[in-house]
Amino acid sequence: MVMASPTPTLARRYAFKLLANMASVPVYLVMEAILPRALGPQMYGNYSFATSLFQQMSGFLDMGTSTCFYNALSRRQHETGLAAFYLRICLAVACVCLLAALLMQIPDIGSRIMPGVPLWLAPLAAGWAFLTWWGRVLRSMNDALGATVASEMLRTLISLLSVLFLGGLFWLQALDIHSLFVQQYLMLGAMAVGFWMVSRCHWRAQDVLFTLQLSRAHYRVYSREFFNYSHPLFVQALLSFVMLTAERWLLQCFDGSAEQGFFALSQKVSMACFLFVSAMTPLVMRELSIAWGAQDREAMGRLLTRFAPLLYVIAAYFSCFTLAEGAALVHIFGGADFAAAILPVQIMALYPLHQAYGQLAGSVFHATGRTRILRNITALECLYGFATAWFLLAPSPFWGLDLGATGLAVKTVAVQCLTVNLYLWLASRFIPICFWRNLAHQIWSLGLLLGLAFACRQLTLTLDLGGVTSFWRFLSCGLIYSLAVAACCLAWPQVLGLSRQDMRELRTRFSRQ
Question: What is the pTM (predicted TM-score) of this model?
C-alpha cells in the first residue's frame, strides 16, 4: 500500500498561500482600476453598500460556526461527518440570506434598509455574499485538512482566468453592474466547486469515505458541539452585524452613495495590502488549535511571539507605501472622479496593520474555546465604536463633525487598533507572550517604515522622475522603497521581530520539502 504524503510544513503551506495571494493581486488591482471608472462613484457606492450589507448578514448567520468547524476538523481530519453536518448549516445560511433579499423587494422595507439604493440589487448582493462566505469556509476546510497546496493552486488558476474575463468585458465596453455580477458569480461558484473537489480528493487519497448521511446520534452530538462552542458568540455576532451595518447605513443616510463609493475604494485598497498577510493567519490558527489540543501553551506563545510581529511588519510594508502614495493610487484606480477619496484611502491604508494582530489574537480565544471573552469585548466595542461613528459622521445639528468617508475611515482604524490591543492584552494573561514588547514593536516599526516610505516619495519627486500622480514615478518609488526596507530588515532583523538565529531557521524551513 502506498503511504500518503505527509502534510507539508507550515512554511511550505504559507509559501503556496502567499503565491496564490500574489496571483490574486491582479484581480483586486484590475477590479479597482476598472470598476470605479466603469460604474462611477454613485453606482460603485450602491454596489458596495448592498454587498457589504449582505456580507455582514452572512457573517452574523455564521455566528462562529465556521471557526468551530475549522478547529474541530483540524483535530479530527478523517471525521467527514463534520463536513456533512456543516453543509446543512451552509444551506440554512443560504435560505435566510435569500429570504431577507426577497423581503427587501417590499418598498416600505427595502427603502428604509437601503436608502437611495435600487432594491433589485438586494438578491444579486445576497447571492454574492453567500458564495463569498461559502468559498471562504471551503477554503479553510482544505487548510484544516492540510490540503493547502492543491487548494491554493486551484485558486491561483481561477483568479487569473477571472481577471482575464473582467478585462475582456471592460475592453468590449460591456462592463456594467449586471455583467459584473455575472463575472463574480462565475468566479465564486467555480472556486467553491473547486475547493470542494480538492477536499473530496484528499479524503479519497486517505481512503476516507465521505457521505452526506448522518445518523440521529451523530446529528445530536454535532449539534451539541457546535451549540456549546457558538452560542456565546450569538450576542457577539449580532452586535457586530448591527454595528458594522449601522455605520455604513449612517454614511449612506447622511452623505449618500458617492461618499459610500469613496469609502469602498479605500476599503478595497486596504484589502489589497492585507492579501499577503491573510495567507498566513489561517495556517497559524490551525497550529494554535493543534497546540491547544495538546495542552501546550508554551507552543502557542512561541507561535504568537514569532509570527505576530512578522505579519505586522509585512502588512506595514504595504500600508506605509500606500499611505505615502495615496494620491497616485487614487489617480490610477479611480481617476479624477474619485479625487475626494485620497484622504480616506490614506487613512484606511493603516487598517491592515492590526488585522494581522486581531486575527491571531482572536484565534487564541477561538482555539481555546474562550468565546465568552470575544462576546464581552464585542459588546464593549459596540459602545465606543458606534459613539465614535456617530460623532464623526453625523451633521452638526446632531452633534457630529459630518466628515463622510474620511470620518468612517478614522473610526474604522482607531477602533480596531484599540480593540485588537485589548485582545492581545487579554491573551497575554493566559498565553506566555509579552504584551508591552509587542505594543512597542507596533509603534517603532510603523514609524520606521513610514519614514522610509515618505523619504522615498520625496526622493523620486526631487529627482524629477514624474509628478505626484505619475505612474512611472510611482513604480520607481516602490522599487526604491522595497530595496530600502529589505536592506533595513537584513541589517536589523528586530524590525521583523526576529533574531539572526530566527532568520536562519526560517530560511531552513522554506527550503524543506
Answer: 0.78
User: Would 66 be classed as within a structural domain?
Assistant: yes
254 and 218 assigned to the same domain: no
pLDDT band at residue 342 using 50, 70 and 90 as cut-offs? very high
Q: What is the pLDDT of residue 189?
A: 93
Q: How many domains does the chain have?
A: 2
pLDDT of res. 148: 75
Are 256 and 223 within one domain? no
Q: Would you list the DSSP string of 354-415?
A: HHHHHHHHHHHHHHTT-HHHHHHHHHHHHHHHHHHHHHHHS-GGGT----HHHHHHHHHHHH
C-alpha cell recorded at residue 462: 526631487
Q: What is the pLDDT of residue 279?
A: 63
Domain that holds residue 186: 10-231
Query: What percentage of the chain reaches a pLDDT higher than 70?
Result: 89
Are 68 and 99 within one domain?
A: yes
Instruction: Note whether 243 and 188 are same-domain residues.
Output: no
Show the CA angle centred on residue 187, arms to residues 186 and 191, nearest 5°: 115
**Do 347 and 421 sit in the same domain of this protein?**
yes
Range with lowest mean pLDDT among 24-28, 46-50, 150-154: 24-28
Q: Which residues contact 207 (CB under 8 A, 6 or more apart)?
A: none
Q: Are residues 179 and 226 in the same domain?
A: yes
Q: Classify 221 as helix, strand or coil.
A: helix
Where b means 16+ CB within 10 Å and e means fewer, 446-480 reads: bebbbebbbebbeebeeeebbeeebeebbebbbeb
| Averaged pLDDT of the chain | 84
